[in-house]
Amino acid sequence: MAELQAAAEPVDKVWCGIEDRLGWKVADPASQPDRPALGTRPADGWWQRLWSAPVFWRGAAAAMAMVAVLAVGIGIQLARQDQTAPAEVVAVLNDDRAQPAMLVSWDAGARSLIVRRLDHLALSDQQVLQLWALPAGGKPQSLGVIGRAPEARLALAQLPAAVPALAVSIEPPGGSPNADGPSGPVVFKGPVIHSRL
After folding, report:
1. Is 49 helix (H, G, I), strand (E, B) or coil?
2. Rounded distance between C-alpha atoms, residue 85 and residue 39, angstroms
3. What CA–CA distance (Å, rounded) separates 27 from 23?
4. At residue 58, what are phi and psi to the nearest 5 degrees?
5. What is the location of CATH 2.60.40 in the chain?
6. DSSP state of 118
7. Spatial contact of 98 and 116, defined as CB atoms under 8 Å apart
């Protein structure tokens, strides 16, 4: 059908408008508005042209996107560093046969001792394990009740200083009723060491 109709020519006004918008038409000096005097700013200065140019906004959007990606990347990297902070091994506690029974490490970020049981010691419902610091020449200090779980976290303000050894005793639920030390048998003990994992 389109082949049967003659091609329509747009009116000159339409062509002139297209050429003006594309910047193809050389303006007639008589039709240009009066130029401003030398040394004065034109009404539509370079800043106004830049502000209204799509290239300016695309560049600004690209720059903002790069800043956002960089900020997210830095945040992820910092989070990974916090999660992978090295744990410090504090002690390996042995049983009475000198076999490793418990690993105690210090998590500086969480300010807690992490106690991992390696033993197979059977405890009744009325028994829990309690961790003790054994200072040189002093009475044992409780670091917390471990319970019966294979791993426990004991919150501490700081790693105990000047403690040459740690020990674990079997106690009633809630821990030793004796403020001076363990009330039950000591089942694991070992020297304090300092080693980064």
Report:
1. helix
2. 64
3. 9
4. -65, -45
5. 88-196
6. -
7. no
Measured CA to CA, the distance from residue 117 to residue 152 in angstroms comes to 9
Q: What length is written for the chain? A: 197
pLDDT of residue 52: 78
**How many whole angstroms separate alpha carbon 85 and alpha carbon 87?**
6
Q: How far is CA 165 from CA 23, 94, 106, 176, 193, in A?
A: 86, 11, 15, 19, 9
Nearest to 141, CA basis, from 149, 151, 133: 133
Each residue's pLDDT expressed in tens, for the chain with a length of 197 residues: 566 777 777 788 887 888 777 777 665 655 555 555 555 555 567 777 777 788 888 888 999 999 999 999 898 888 776 655 556 778 899 999 999 999 998 887 788 889 999 988 888 999 999 999 998 888 899 999 998 888 999 998 877 777 889 999 999 999 999 888 999 999 999 998 865 54
Q: Which DSSP helix (H) or strand (E) runs through 78?
A: helix 54-83
In what helix (H) or strand (E) does residue 97 lie, and over which residues does it extend?
Answer: none
| Class of the CATH-defined domain 88-196 | mainly beta
Cα distances (angstroms) measured from residue 16 to each of 2, 12, 19, 22, 26: 26, 6, 5, 10, 11
**Backbone φ, ψ for residue 49 (5° rounding):** -65, -40
